[in-house]
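It would be a great kindness if you could assist me with a short task in structural biology. A protein sequence and the C-alpha cells that stand for its backbone fold form the material at issue. I should value your view on which stretches of the chain appear to form regular backbone elements. The record follows directly beneath this note.
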Amino acid sequence: MAADGIWFLSITDEAEGASLKTHNSRRIIPIHPELLRLRFVEYAHQQLEKVFPALRVDSHRSLTGNFSKWWGRYARKVIRIEDERKVFHSFRHSFKDACRNSGIHQEIHDAFTGHAGGNVGSTYGSGPWLPRLAEEMARLKYEGLKPVNL
C-alpha cells in the first residue's frame, strides 16, 4: 500500500483466516528504501493474492510455522549454523539490534515490530505518524551488509 508517496506493509487481521497475537500487532511498516530499490513493490504487485504465495497454513493455523521449520533445516544443513538457538525468529532479534545500532528510538522500533511500550504514556495517542516511521526506517543499517547490484 502507499500513502503520501510512502510504500508500507499493513499488518491486520482483516483478511479471511487472518489473526493477530495482540492489539499492538496491528500496524503499518514502511518499506525500507533498499527494498524499494530492489523492486519489492513491483514483485508484490505481480502476486495474485499474497506477497508470499508459497506459504501454507500448518496444523496450528500458523502461516509461518512450516517456513520456520524449513528455515531451521536449511540453516543447519546448508549454511551450517550449528547453534540450535539460531532460528527463524532470530531475525526479529537481529532487527531490534540493528534498530538500536542505527540510533532508532525504542518507541519507533516497537511500532515496527508490534511490541507494546513499557509505560502508561506509550498507550496514549495514535502512535507514530507514517512519514516519521518512514524517515526512521530509512536510517536502518546492517553493519557489514553490502547492497546488491541489479
Summary: The chain has one domain: 2-139. The chain has a mean pLDDT of 85. The radius of gyration is 17 Å.
